[in-house]
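Technical annex, item 7. During the second reporting period the consortium partners agreed on a shared format for inverse folding records so that results from different sites could be compared directly. Each record opens with the tokenized structure and is followed by the designed sequence. A conforming record, contributed by the partner at site C, is shown below for reference.
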């Protein structure tokens, strides 16, 4: 596993949170993107070598909608950059970590992603992401 690629933060309204994070980070949002398969709208900020990903639910029944209903806004996941997502998934599954998908799936910002169930990672939702080259 390489560096932390981004930290995902669940927000109620991108329309309010994008300007807030632009002020906070003193950098413009460089991309917004909807991932329809996940029911989520995302916004990205580059901060040094890392990124911040804001996540707004596109529907109440989406995973982000459920997360916000249960826990409110806040840190949702930590994403690690990996060179070979399939090899990393295999390595972690062999160690007993619970993967939320069995094959890598397309995520936001030109990535293949896989999530690890927080119950196998001390309550932290972990995302593996590999740049699609
Ligand atoms: Zn993410």
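Designed sequence (site C submission):
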């Amino acid at each position: 596993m390489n560096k932390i690629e981004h930290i995902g933060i669940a927000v109620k309204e991108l329309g309010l949170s994008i300007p807030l994070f632009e002020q906070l980070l003193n950098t413009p949002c460089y991309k917004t993107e909807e991932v329809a398969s996940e029911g989520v709208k995302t916004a990205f900020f580059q901060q040094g070598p890392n990124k911040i990903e804001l996540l707004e639910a596109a529907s109440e029944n989406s995973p982000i909608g459920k997360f916000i209903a249960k826990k409110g806004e806040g840190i949702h996941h930590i994403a690690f950059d990996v060179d070979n997502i399939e090899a990393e998934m295999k390595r972690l599954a062999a160690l007993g970590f619970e993967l939320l998908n069995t094959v890598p799936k397309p995520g936001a910002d030109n990535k293949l992603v896989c999530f690890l169930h927080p119950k196998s990672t001390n309550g932290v939702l972990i995302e593996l992401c590999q740049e699609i080259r």
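The CA atoms of residues 116 and 122 lie 11 Å apart. The first helix runs from residue 14 to 25. All partners now use this format for quarterly exchanges.
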